[in-house]
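Q: Could you fold this chain for me?
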Amino acid sequence: LGLLTSDLGLWTSDFGLWTLDFGLWTLDLGPSTPDSPIMRVLFLILDPHHPATRYRVTQYLEYLTAHGVVPTVEKFPEDYSGWKVLAARRPAPDLAVIQKKRLNWLVWRLLKHAGWRTIYDVDDAVMYASSRHRSPFSFIRMLKFKGMARRSDAVIAGNAYLKSLAEPLNPNVH
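A: Sure. Below is the predicted structure, expressed as structure tokens.
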């Protein structure tokens, strides 16, 4: 993966490089290939009716499509066998945007072995327990958040606080 910049434009494959611009940031994905003339982006979501999905994914689908991106939106598989089916699908996505969910290491290993490039899109403090708990701190949730941030090719943080937590873990945080 290349680096994220603030260039304007949207999506190009000029000079043999993929560039995807979501408005606030641009992701240079490296060399395009003759067998992949378009970019396929898979958005993995919790629920199509969730406000974060509407705000951070579905409102951009028409725009992405109009600019040469083939976006697909799917709910997360419910179990490991579902992840195996998803990872084996061909053609594989050029990029998978994982929204909010904290995946375990076994699923990550499967996706990376399948050659997936990933962006972790986090806009809530997913590393903390819900407000129903006595203490907001959750060791397991924090551990999974750190793993997601480290293993992802890039992280999109929904606010400055989340960005400050992810920056020590990943060089491509925006």
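A (continued): Confidence is low (pLDDT under 50) at residues 1-17.
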